Amino acid sequence: MAGEADTPKHTEELTQLGHETAIPRSPDEARLERVPNPHPGTEYLARFTCPEFTCLCPVTGQPDFAHLVIDYVPGDWLLESKSLKLYLFSFRDHGGFHEETTVSVGKRIVEEIAPPFLRIGGYWYPRGGIPIDVFWQHGEAPQGLWLPDQGVAPYRGRG
User: Given 3.40.50.800, 3.30.1130.10, 3.40.190.150, 3.20.20.150, which CATH number is that of 30-138?
Assistant: First the structure.
């Protein structure tokens, strides 16, 4: 196991699960928490889906909407789901381009739980008439791991 110097901050004590917790005002203030993986050494995929993700356009301040799908292979840690929910909610008043926002979410999770593999798909609804889908991956999927399709159809409009 990693030494204390390698341990990400905000991970040793659950402060949100089971407690009344306000939505953080920004992603920087949000706290991601982790719990021990009950099956360390077993390669399996965990998936979080956030079909109603919102943030703000950094230029116009108008709301942007996305369907996020986060797949990861746990190492020593699992991402605690309430803390993830609050972290994702913290983007509601945050301005960020689709690419920056999607990749930042993925990198923050990697920083906190150090999974051997993570992929995030950001399926964004059109802005200015152009839908933007953003995909980021950390690590390689383990050989033989069942890696299902993320299940989100590309934007097709009305046609």
Answer: 3.30.1130.10
